[in-house]
Amino acid sequence: MSTISLRSTARPANGTRHHTDSIHSSTIEDVLNRALASDWSAWKELERRYGSLLLHTARGVGLSHSDAFDVAQQTWLRLWQHGGQIRDPQCLPAWLAATARREGLRVAISRKRYLLYADPTTEHGDGQRAAVVDVYPADGEYEPSTERALARLPGRYQRLIRLLMSDSCPSYLEIAETLNLPIGSIGPMRMRALQMLRRTPELATAAR
Known about the structure:
Elements: H1 20-24, H2 28-36, H3 40-61, H4 65-82, H5 92-109, H6 144-151, H7 155-164, H8 172-179, H9 186-199, H10 201-207
Helix pairs in contact: 2-3, 3-4, 3-5, 4-5, 7-9
């Protein structure tokens, strides 16, 4: 859910009210800790800092604006549920991006139409997507039905989806180098992979 939707859950922390200028200058670690301690002003600050990153990442998967907003909501919910397991708060932007990409791909698999966008990581710089191998993975292993569906894809398409959903959140350039493909082919190939996934017996019913 979005930070706005968290209003009923994230109550102001006991004691002090934090001023806006103070929260704006706080470190990532401080803002994250305060948010997880139910400080509403800290949740608003997280949304201010990273809300556009979530939407841009979800749109980069090929989702419409409304679907991307739903993915952002789900990503904030994941943070509320698992944020305490993030060992290095400096990895928070990368964790959010990786989680939004995974959630976005799950939504894209269930949709009949996809939009083609450029690499969602390029506008936010390398600092926003540092490796997140030391933090809580966004759901760990795939669900059995998704794993079986992935196994039906041709090897290259399967590797592409796994790379897109990996915790390290590689850029399109990195994926292209790993798969030895032109970078311009990653977006169309992703769309074909999602279409094939939707047609698998494991996911066809859920995608209707």
